[in-house]
């Protein structure tokens, strides 16, 4: 199994859980979109910086046969799917676990 396929399964599962949590808790996507976008931007920058540092320092490497070949610096593009999955998965888990849904004028 290659990293792109594995990443796809993680993204699909996270997206499904996120959509279910929005539906069950009746949370409008527009009320959470700015926070999700900000979190995604921050995690993407952190992933780019720290993945490149860790790969450059020799902490780990990848077998090229399991990658798509697209890289941001030294970091393979597949590594950037994990922050996206986390941005979808963590709020969904919070809301489904009984955590407070976002309050705002868009909320019914």
Give your account of this protein's structure.
By secondary structure, this protein is mainly alpha-helical. It has one domain. The chain has three helices and two strands; from the N terminus they run ααββα. β1 and β2 form a beta hairpin. α1 packs parallel to α3. The protein is elongated and about 45 Å long. The termini are far apart. The mean pLDDT is 88. Pathway: Carotenoid biosynthesis. This is Lycopene cyclase domain-containing protein. InterPro entries: Lycopene_cyclase_dom. It is found in: Membrane.
Features:
2 strands, transmembrane, two-stranded antiparallel sheet, 108 residues, membrane, mainly alpha, carotenoid biosynthesis, 4% strand, single chain, isomerase
Tell how many strands the DSSP assignment holds: 2
| Derived structural class | mainly alpha
Order of helices and strands, N to C? HHEEH
How many helices? The count is: 3
Main beta-sheet annotation: 2 strands, antiparallel
- Give the rounded overall mean pLDDT: 88
| Ends distance | 44 Å
Structural domain tally? 1
Strand content: under 5%
> In which range does the helix fraction lie?
55-70%
Q: Looking across the biggest beta sheet, what order are the strands in? A: 1-2
Pathway: Carotenoid biosynthesis
Membrane topology: Multi-pass membrane protein
Subcellular location: Membrane
Pfam families: Lycopene_cyc
């Amino acid at each position: 199994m290659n990293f792109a396929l594995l990443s796809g399964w993680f993204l699909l599962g996270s997206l499904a859980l996120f959509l279910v949590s929005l539906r069950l808790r009746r949370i409008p996507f527009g009320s959470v979109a700015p926070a999700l976008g900000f979190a995604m931007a921050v995690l993407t920058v952190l992933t780019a910086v720290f993945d490149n540092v860790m790969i450059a320092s020799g902490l780990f490497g990848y077998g090229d046969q399991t990658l798509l070949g697209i890289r941001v610096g030294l970091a393979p593009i597949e590594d950037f799917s994990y922050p996206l999955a986390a941005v979808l998965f963590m709020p969904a888990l919070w809301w489904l676990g009984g955590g407070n849904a976002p309050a705002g004028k868009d909320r019914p």
